[in-house]
Write a structure and sequence with these properties.
5-stranded antiparallel β-sheet; alpha+beta; globular; 23% helix
Length: 86
């Protein structure tokens, strides 16, 4: 079960306050677990038991190339956090 639509609608990156992108199937290139991604801060927030872990110190800061790749995927598919949970 994914995080609720209502929760995804209100979440923003705690560092940049920018909207998040929800990757429900993990990274399309590398697989893995669902996560939320902030293109502005380049932070990936894991989701544990359907609960996003929204702590900057627990997030993974991605390199520029990886962040750019995920940003392009998000733009191409328009998968902002709320669109996947509808």
């Amino acid at each position: 079960m994914a995080p609720s639509r209502e929760l995804l609608e209100i979440l923003v990156c705690p560092e940049s306050k920018a909207p998040l992108v929800y990757f429900p199937d993990g990274d399309p290139e590398h697989g893995g677990e669902p996560f939320l991604f902030c293109p502005t801060s380049r932070l990936a927030y894991r989701i544990d038991d359907d609960i996003p872990v929204m702590l900057v110190e627990e997030a993974s800061r991605l390199g520029h190339e990886e962040a750019d790749r995920l940003s392009q995927l998000a733009e191409g598919r328009a998968h902002h956090a709320t669109s996947e949970s509808e």
